[in-house]
């Protein structure tokens, strides 16, 4: 439940403590910081910033000035600020591959990175994170030594599991848990450990797995553990859109016997937030119903794609198909502000014959797969032949009716001009820029075969693969999201052998991702094993591959564990 509370309440609670009489004592240089850390057996907290960076200033004003953050830093850290505009800053930014600001690095006395945070965090969530980092650095060696001698030590096991889980190392956390139970620790005494593992799953969006862990915590532990577990289940249900179930669970958490008011404080905050969210959702539902009613008044909707194309041909217009879902906020805004307002609806009717397809219906899902719909709302423009000649994927920004109508109009103009562009390029197929522009328009239209044809023509003219590999990746990505995954894999297989080192790794990772989505984790791992062995790869790309491989391995370990539990059961 940590992430939900952080979003709903912690920032406000901690911001009130931001005005501190004391300040963090920042060390003057990198070398001095490392020496102090080594001597004091502490972590170095390096704030990598720039004067022009707004979030960096927020971090200084709201987080680094917080009394409790200051106190923690003084006692347990060596603090250093590094300006990326200085020579030292440039060198450190390059050495540690800092890409976004602010980045806060946590290093040991030898300068080896232990953890990092990227972006602004309010004081409360920030302190929670750095406390975990500190425990991992300062306490974990001792905890592991204690557990080696006494694996059934419940307190040591819970502390180690909490640190591992907070850092996303669930395989390590579950190994400690399994060892503790094997040594005789009772499941009911490990409620805090199950809560910690549940938190890690929840923060990663694995809500079903999180709920399973919280249910285990609910059956044992202290009243405080039970309140936390049940209210965490409520926050998971909320994230899953199960509002009524969420409210039911949070009310149950407030009735736990023996729990103090302090134990129930976060659950109370969650209940209030849930009630507000439910009320807001009900109000939005009413607005959505009204918008749908208005939309049906002002726009003559087509029945299906064939009907839209036929009517567009008769009226000498184009057809526009809006792929939407009821849960999509930009979709609702589009319906309310364009389709549901007479002025803009009429302007749209002048341009196109319109059709809406709900991607949550069986027919809608099929159409979305067919046309490679990857985000909502996506609007396709069809010509009189029923071919896709335009694709709008930028969504809809509230209040942007005129901009949206212009976007539709521009898509129609581009569709009309496209045949001329193709004809001109066919006279000079060595023009790489024009060829790539045409290929990208074919991608937008969903015609991957013609897009590939343009790239093959460029290659036949002697164009280096490096110049067009990005467009090949775009085609492969679109195919993987459609019903033509095999064709997408064929492109990636070629890039995994013929591309540069980084491109080979990227292609393999995309193939591995497809395996993982299809739950072929063993196949994904086999591919990633190859990716991490490719030489000459950029460090950042290699890190991505290694991280992906580690996550897949963790999933495989989890699957194996579940199978073993079923056998034992």
From the coordinates shown, what is the CATH architecture of the domain at 431-568?
Alpha Horseshoe
* Main sheet characteristics: 5 strands, mixed
CATH homologous superfamily annotation of the domain at 431-568: Tetratricopeptide repeat domain
DSSP helix count? Answer: 26
- How big is the Rg? 28 Å
Structural class per helix/strand content? alpha/beta
Mean pLDDT: 88
CATH topology type of the domain at 431-568: Serine Threonine Protein Phosphatase 5, Tetratricopeptide repeat
Number of strands: 9
Instruction: Order the strands across the largest sheet as they lie in space.
Output: 1-3-2-4-5
Tertiary shape: globular
Give the amount of beta strand, in percent.
5-15%
Kindly report the oligomeric state of this protein: single chain
- In which range does the helix fraction lie? 55-70%
What can you see in these coordinates?
With 569 residues, the protein is α/β, with parallel strands linked by helices. Among the domains are: 2-138, Glutaredoxin, CATH 3.40.30; 299-417, Glutaredoxin (3-Layer(aba) Sandwich); 431-568, Tetratricopeptide repeat domain (Serine Threonine Protein Phosphatase 5, Tetratricopeptide repeat). It is 66% helix and 9% strand. The chain contains 26 helices and nine strands. Helix 4 runs parallel beside helix 6, helix 12 (223-239) runs parallel beside helix 14 and helix 13 runs antiparallel to helix 14 (265-298).
């Amino acid at each position: 439940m940590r992430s939900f509370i952080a979003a709903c309440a912690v920032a406000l609670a901690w911001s009130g403590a931001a005005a501190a009489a004391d300040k963090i004592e920042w060390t003057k240089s990198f070398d001095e910081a490392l020496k102090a850390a080594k001597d004091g057996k502490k972590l170095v907290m390096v704030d990598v910033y720039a004067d022009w960076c707004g979030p960096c200033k927020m971090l200084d004003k709201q987080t680094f000035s917080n009394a409790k953050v200051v106190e923690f830093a003084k006692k347990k850290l060596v603090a250093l600020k590094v300006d990326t505009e200085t020579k030292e800053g440039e060198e450190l930014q390059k050495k540690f591959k800092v890409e976004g600001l602010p980045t806060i690095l946590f290093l040991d006395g030898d300068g080896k990175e232990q953890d990092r945070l990227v972006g602004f965090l309010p004081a409360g969530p920030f302190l929670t994170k750095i406390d975990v980092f500190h425990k991992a650095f300062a306490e974990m060696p001792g905890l592991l030594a204690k557990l080696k001698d006494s694996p059934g030590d419940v307190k040591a096991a819970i502390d180690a599991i909490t640190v591992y889980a907070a850092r996303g190392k669930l395989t390590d956390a579950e190994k400690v848990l399994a060892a503790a139970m094997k040594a005789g620790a009772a499941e009911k005494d490990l409620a805090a450990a199950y809560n910690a593992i549940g938190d890690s799953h929840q923060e990663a969006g694995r809500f079903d797995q999180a709920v399973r862990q919280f249910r285990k915590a609910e059956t044992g532990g202290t009243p405080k553990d039970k309140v936390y577990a049940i209210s965490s289940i409520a926050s998971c249900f909320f994230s899953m859109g199960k509002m009524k179930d969420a409210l039911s669970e949070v009310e149950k958490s407030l009735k736990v016997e023996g729990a103090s008011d302090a134990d129930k404080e976060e659950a109370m905050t969650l209940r209030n937030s849930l009630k507000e969210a439910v009320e807001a959702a009900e109000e939005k539902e009413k607005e959505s119903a009204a918008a749908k009613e208005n939309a049906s008044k002002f726009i003559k909707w087509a029945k299906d794609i064939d009907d839209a194309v036929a009517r567009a041909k008769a009226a000498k217009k184009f057809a526009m198909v809006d792929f939407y879902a009821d849960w999509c906020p930009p979709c609702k805004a589009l319906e309310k502000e364009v389709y549901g307002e007479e002025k803009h609806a009429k302007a749209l009717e002048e341009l196109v014959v319109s059709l809406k397809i709900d991607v949550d219906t069986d027919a809608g899902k099929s159409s979305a797969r067919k046309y490679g719909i990857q985000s909502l709302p996506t609007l396709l423009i069809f010509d009189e032949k029923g071919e896709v000649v335009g694709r709008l994927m930028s969504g809809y920004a509230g209040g942007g009716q005129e901009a949206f109508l212009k976007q539709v109009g521009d898509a129609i103009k581009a569709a009309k001009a496209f045949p001329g562009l193709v004809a001109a390029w066919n006279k000079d197929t060595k023009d790489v820029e024009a060829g790539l522009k045409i290929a990208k328009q074919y991608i937008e239209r969903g015609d991957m075969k013609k897009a590939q044809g343009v790239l093959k023509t460029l290659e036949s003219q002697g164009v280096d693969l490096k110049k067009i590999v990005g467009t090949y990746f775009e085609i492969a990505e679109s195919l993987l999201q459609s019903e033509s995954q095999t064709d997408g894999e064929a492109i990636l297989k070629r890039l995994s052998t013929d591309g540069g080192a980084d491109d080979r790794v990227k292609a393999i990772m995309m193939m591995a991702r497809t395996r993982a989505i299809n739950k072929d984790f063993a196949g994904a791992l086999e591919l990633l094993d190859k990716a991490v062995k490719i030489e000459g790869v950029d460090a950042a790309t290699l890190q991505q591959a290694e991280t992906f491989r580690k996550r897949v391995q963790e999933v495989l370990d989890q699957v194996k564990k579940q199978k073993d539990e079923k056998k034992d059961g």
